Amino acid sequence: MTADITLERLAVLRRRGEQQALEALLREVGLLRQAEQQAEEAARSAQRRADEARARERELIRSLAGRAVSQAAIIRIQTELDRAALETVRLRAAAARAQADLLTRQSARAEAAANFRLRQRAAARLDLLCKEASARRSRWDAALHETEDEDRSAAIMTGPPP
User: What is the C-alpha to C-alpha distance for residues 66 and 23, in angstroms, rounded to an integer?
Assistant: First the structure.
């Protein structure tokens, strides 16, 4: 009987571990979705800023075309273009960091999923073992009761001792 109790306690612990692994997996799935959204937004933001910078650059160059421009105006335009390029680089770096975070989250989610599957299989194996032990115990109890019934029936049939 103590082995059965031990198996049942172990099964409870395994199911608890399985539940914790499932909760960790669900947390990782949520964090992965969040990282995907952030990566997409960062990429869109970087692309939008690069497009705006190119459009502004074309506009500034067109304003210079065909006329004499002072050195101060050229420096001002170059400074504006440099600022736009710097901002574009900053946003692309943020997009790269968001992409790296996304890859980290994907890896963490895969690890959590593998851990959950491992714990799920372990709990299922132990549940099967508990069911087999219970079935063996039931067969043993049935055989014992059958033997006791046969012994009682034999005692009744033979009658009381002389």
Answer: 67
- In degrees, rounded to 5, the angle at the alpha carbon of residue 40 between the alpha carbons of residues 39 and 45 is 100
Non-local CB neighbours of 76 within 8 Å, separated by 6+ positions: none
Task: Give me the DSSP letters along 91-140.
Answer: HHHHHHHHHHHHHHHHHHHHHHHHHHHHHHHHHHHHHHHHHHHHHHHHHH
What global pTM score does this model have?
0.70
pLDDT in tens, 13-56: 999 999 999 999 999 999 999 999 999 999 999 999 999 999 99
Q: What is the pLDDT of residues 70-80, one digit of tens each?
A: 899 889 999 99
Per-residue exposure over 33-45, b if at least 16 CB sit within 10 Å of its own CB, e if not: eebeebbeebbee
Domains within the chain, CATH numbers bracketed? 2-126 (1.10.287)
